[in-house]
C-alpha cells in the first residue's frame, strides 16, 4: 500500500518527499506542476482520474471530482458548501511518478468557467491540452490556449476518445497548426482510425506497436501488449501500413519533437489515446515527467530580475477562496511555492504591505480533502487558512524581499448592473462590492452616467455572478439585484477613446472605467460593433484584453 494521505507521510519510491528539509533546488527539479486545459466534456475528469490512478496517488483518487458528483451542481464551490461548509474549487492533486512529484492543478470548467480558471494558469509550468477527437478545437480550449500562449506556458496535446469515431489524425494536426500557429509534433501515433483503434506507435520506437484490447469482464481499462513490427504487419496489415505511411510523412515535414521549440511555445508534442480505457495515459504521464519543465526562476515585477528556486521562500497567491459558511468566515489562499522551502508555522511577509503573515494553518488541498502540510517545495501548492488579509496576486516571502508581477486581469464577457435590494443597506452594499472587487471575484466598473449606486460587474464566466449574489446576501447582508447588459466583449481604451464611445450615443457600445486599476473599458454588444467603431474612429485605440494594465 503506497498511498498516503497526509503530506508529512509521503514516500515516493522509497524516498521521503515531504519531510526532508531538502534542498530546494533538488526538490524543485523533481517537481512538475501542470494543469489540463479543455472544453467541457472533452474528458478532463476522466483523464485526471486515469492519471492519478496510474501514478502513485498521494491522495485518494476518489477525491477527484467525478462526473457523478458534479451533476446538477452549479459549481464545486456550492457543492463543497453543501457538503461540509468549506469551499475549495481549485483543488490540487499531488502524485508521484518515476521519482518525480507531479502537482496537477484543477482548472474548474463547465458552468464555473471564470477568472479563477485563467489564474490557475499563472501557477503552472506546463499545460496538457485535451482535445476531443471528434470535435477538434473548441471554444474554451481556444481561450485557455490564448492564456497559455500569453504567459509562455508550454503545451502538451492529448487527443482523446480515439476509441470513438472521430476526425482524421492528420486533419486534427492541421487544425492545431493553422488555428494556433503551433507546430504539432506527434510522439505517439494511432494504429487505426478513430473508432477503430488497434493501438499506438511510440514514434521514438517505430518498430513496435502497443496493442490495446478490451479487457474481459467489462473492466474499463484496456489490456496493453507490445507487438514487433512483423507481427503488427501480419495481424493489422492495413492499419499498420497506414500508420507507417503517415509517420513517414510527418518525419518528412519535420514534425518531430523539439524540446527548445516546445519550451518556447512554438510546438506541441501530441499524444493520442482514450482516457476512459486508460489508453495512452502512461505515455502522457511519462511526457509530463520527461518534457515538461521543472519549476525554474521566476521573473520579478518592475525589472527586478528573477527569483531563483534556491532563494529563500517566496510564493504567489493565485486564488483566494472565501468560505461560504457564515459561521466560519475563513478564507483559503492558494499559494504556489516559487522559491525556497515552505515550512508550516514559518512567518512570511506579505509584499503588498510589508506585514507579517503567520502560516500556522497551512494545508495541502487535495480534491475535497484538507490535511496539514509541513513542508513544500517550489512547484507545490499550499492552502493557507485564515487568509483574510491575502489577495489574489500577492507575493509572500521570507528573508529576502520578492514581488512577482501583478496577476493579469482578463477580458470580461458578461456584464450586469448590480443594485442593493434594500436601499437601507447601501453602506453594506458598497463595502461588499468593494471587497469582492479587491478579492478579484468580479471586476467592478463605474461611469458617471450610471452613477456609483449602480456599478457594473464584469465577469469572464457567469458563475462569478452567482458567487456575488450569494456572498452579498450571506456575508454582507446586503442582497442584490443583477440586471444583465447586452454586451459581450470588452476592449481597453484610453480617455479619448472612452469619450468618443460614449459620445457616439451608445451606437457602438459604452465606456466605463475599472475601479481596480483605472483602466477604461469599451463594452460592445458584438465584434461587429467593435469593427464599426474602429472604422468610424480609426485614431482611437482599442486594445485586446488579456492582461490590461
Ligand atoms: P470533462 O471533465 O472534460 O467535462 O469530461 P468528462 O471526463 O466528464 O467526460 C465527458 C464524457 O466523455 C463522459 O461521458 C466520459 O465518460 C466520456 N469520455 C471521456 N474520455 C473518454 C474516452 O477516452 N473515450 C470515450 N469513449 N469516452 C470518454 P458521459 O456519457 O458524459 O458520462 P458518463 O455517463 O460516461 O459518466
TrEMBL record:
<dbReference type="GO" id="GO:0016149">
    <property type="term" value="F:translation release factor activity, codon specific"/>
</dbReference>
<comment type="similarity">
    <text>Belongs to the TRAFAC class translation factor GTPase superfamily. Classic translation factor GTPase family. PrfC subfamily.</text>
</comment>
<keyword id="KW-0963">Cytoplasm</keyword>
<comment type="function">
    <text>Increases the formation of ribosomal termination complexes and stimulates activities of RF-1 and RF-2. It binds guanine nucleotides and has strong preference for UGA stop codons. It may interact directly with the ribosome. The stimulation of RF-1 and RF-2 is significantly reduced by GTP and GDP, but not by GMP.</text>
</comment>
<dbReference type="Pfam" id="PF22042">
    <property type="entry name" value="EF-G_D2"/>
</dbReference>
<protein>
    <recommendedName>
        <fullName>Peptide chain release factor 3</fullName>
    </recommendedName>
</protein>
<dbReference type="InterPro" id="IPR035647">
    <property type="entry name" value="EFG_III/V"/>
</dbReference>
<dbReference type="InterPro" id="IPR041732">
    <property type="entry name" value="RF3_GTP-bd"/>
</dbReference>
<dbReference type="GO" id="GO:0016150">
    <property type="term" value="F:translation release factor activity, codon nonspecific"/>
</dbReference>
<dbReference type="GO" id="GO:0005829">
    <property type="term" value="C:cytosol"/>
</dbReference>
<dbReference type="InterPro" id="IPR000795">
    <property type="entry name" value="T_Tr_GTP-bd_dom"/>
</dbReference>
<dbReference type="Pfam" id="PF16658">
    <property type="entry name" value="RF3_C"/>
</dbReference>
<dbReference type="InterPro" id="IPR009000">
    <property type="entry name" value="Transl_B-barrel_sf"/>
</dbReference>
<dbReference type="GO" id="GO:0003924">
    <property type="term" value="F:GTPase activity"/>
</dbReference>
<dbReference type="InterPro" id="IPR032090">
    <property type="entry name" value="RF3_C"/>
</dbReference>
<feature type="binding site">
    <location>
        <begin position="106"/>
        <end position="110"/>
    </location>
    <ligand>
        <name>GTP</name>
    </ligand>
</feature>
<dbReference type="InterPro" id="IPR053905">
    <property type="entry name" value="EF-G-like_DII"/>
</dbReference>
<dbReference type="GO" id="GO:0006449">
    <property type="term" value="P:regulation of translational termination"/>
</dbReference>
<dbReference type="InterPro" id="IPR031157">
    <property type="entry name" value="G_TR_CS"/>
</dbReference>
<dbReference type="Pfam" id="PF00009">
    <property type="entry name" value="GTP_EFTU"/>
</dbReference>
<dbReference type="GO" id="GO:0005525">
    <property type="term" value="F:GTP binding"/>
</dbReference>
<feature type="domain" description="Tr-type G">
    <location>
        <begin position="29"/>
        <end position="300"/>
    </location>
</feature>
<dbReference type="InterPro" id="IPR005225">
    <property type="entry name" value="Small_GTP-bd"/>
</dbReference>
<dbReference type="InterPro" id="IPR004548">
    <property type="entry name" value="PrfC"/>
</dbReference>
<keyword id="KW-0648">Protein biosynthesis</keyword>
<dbReference type="InterPro" id="IPR027417">
    <property type="entry name" value="P-loop_NTPase"/>
</dbReference>
<dbReference type="InterPro" id="IPR038467">
    <property type="entry name" value="RF3_dom_3_sf"/>
</dbReference>
<keyword id="KW-0547">Nucleotide-binding</keyword>
<keyword id="KW-0342">GTP-binding</keyword>
Amino acid at each position: 500500500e503506497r498511498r498516503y494521505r497526509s503530506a508529512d507521510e509521503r514516500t515516493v519510491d522509497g524516498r521521503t518527499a515531504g519531510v526532508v528539509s531538502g534542498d530546494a533546488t533538488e526538490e524543485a527539479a523533481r517537481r512538475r506542476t501542470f494543469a489540463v486545459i479543455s472544453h467541457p466534456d472533452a474528458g478532463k475528469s476522466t483523464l485526471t482520474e486515469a492519471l492519478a490512478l496510474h501514478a502513485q496517488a498521494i491522495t485518494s483518487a476518489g477525491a477527484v471530482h467525478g462526473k457523478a458528483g458534479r451533476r446538477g451542481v452549479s459549481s464545486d464551490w456550492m457543492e463543497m458548501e453543501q457538503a461540509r461548509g468549506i469551499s475549495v474549487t481549485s483543488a490540487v492533486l499531488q502524485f508521484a511518478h518515476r521519482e518525480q512529484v507531479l502537482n496537477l492543478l484543477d482548472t474548474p470548467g463547465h458552468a464555473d468557467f471564470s477568472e479563477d480558471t485563467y489564474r490557475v494558469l499563472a501557477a503552472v509550468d506546463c499545460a496538457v491540452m485535451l482535445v476531443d477527437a471528434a470535435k477538434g478545437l473548441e471554444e474554451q480550449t481556444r481561450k485557455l490556449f490564448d492564456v497559455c500562449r500569453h504567459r509562455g506556458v508550454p503545451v502538451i496535446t492529448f487527443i482523446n476518445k480515439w476509441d470513438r469515431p472521430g476526425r482524421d489524425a492528420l486533419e486534427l494536426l492541421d487544425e492545431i497548426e493553422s488555428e494556433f500557429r503551433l507546430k504539432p509534433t506527434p510522439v505517439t501515433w494511432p494504429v487505426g482510425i478513430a473508432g477503430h483503434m488497434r493501438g499506438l506507435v511510440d514514434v521514438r520506437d517505430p518498430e513496435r506497436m502497443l496493442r490495446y484490447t478490451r479487457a474481459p469482464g467489462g473492466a474499463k481499462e484496456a489490456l496493453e501488449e507490445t507487438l514487433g513490427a512483423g507481427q503488427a504487419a501480419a495481424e493489422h496489415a492495413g492499419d499498420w501500413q497506414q500508420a507507417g505511411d503517415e509517420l513517414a510523412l510527418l518525419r518528412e515535414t519535420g514534425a518531430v519533437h523539439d524540446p527548445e521549440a516546445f519550451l518556447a511555445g512554438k510546438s506541441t508534442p501530441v499524444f493520442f489515446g482514450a482516457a476512459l480505457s486508460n489508453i495512452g495515459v502512461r505515455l502522457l504521464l511519462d511526457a509530463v515527467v520527461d518534457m515538461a519543465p521543472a519549476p525554474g526562476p521566476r521573473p520579478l515585477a518592475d525589472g527586478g530580475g528573477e527569483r531563483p528556486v534556491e532563494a529563500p521562500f517566496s510564493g504567489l497567491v493565485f486564488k483566494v477562496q472565501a468560505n461560504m459558511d457564515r459561521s466560519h468566515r475563513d478564507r483559503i489562499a492558494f499559494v504556489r511555492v516559487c522559491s525556497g522551502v515552505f515550512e508550516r508555522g514559518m512567518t512570511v511577509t506579505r509584499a503588498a504591505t510589508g506585514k507579517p503573515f503567520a502560516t500556522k494553518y497551512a494545508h495541502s488541498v487535495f480534491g475535497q480533502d484538507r490535511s496539514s502540510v509541513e513542508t513544500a517545495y517550489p512547484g507545490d501548492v499550499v492552502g493557507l487558512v485564515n487568509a483574510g488579509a491575502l489577495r489574489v496576486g500577492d507575493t509572500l516571502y521570507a528573508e529576502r524581499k520578492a514581488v512577482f508581477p501583478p496577476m493579469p486581469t482578463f477580458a470580461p464577457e458578461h456584464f450586469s448592473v448590480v443594485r442593493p435590494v434594500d436601499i437601507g443597506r447601501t453602506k453594506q452594499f458598497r463595502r461588499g462590492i468593494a471587497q469582492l472587487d479587491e478579492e478579484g471575484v468580479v471586476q467592478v466598473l463605474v461611469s458617471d452616467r450610471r452613477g456609483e449606486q449602480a456599478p457594473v460587474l464584469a465577469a469572464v464566466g457567469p458563475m462569478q455572478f452567482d458567487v456575488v449574489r450569494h456572498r452579498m446576501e450571506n456575508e454582507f447582508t446586503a442582497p442584490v439585484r443583477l440586471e444583465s447588459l447586452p454586451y459581450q466583449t470588452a476592449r481597453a481604451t484610453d480617455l479619448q477613446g472612452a469619450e468618443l464611445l460614449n459620445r457616439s450615443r451608445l451606437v457602438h457600445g459604452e465606456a466605463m472605467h475599472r475601479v481596480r486599476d483605472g483602466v477604461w473599458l469599451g463594452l460592445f454588444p458584438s465584434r461587429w460593433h467593435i469593427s464599426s467603431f474602429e472604422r468610424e474612429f480609426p485614431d482611437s485605440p482599442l486594445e485586446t484584453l488579456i492582461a490590461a494594465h
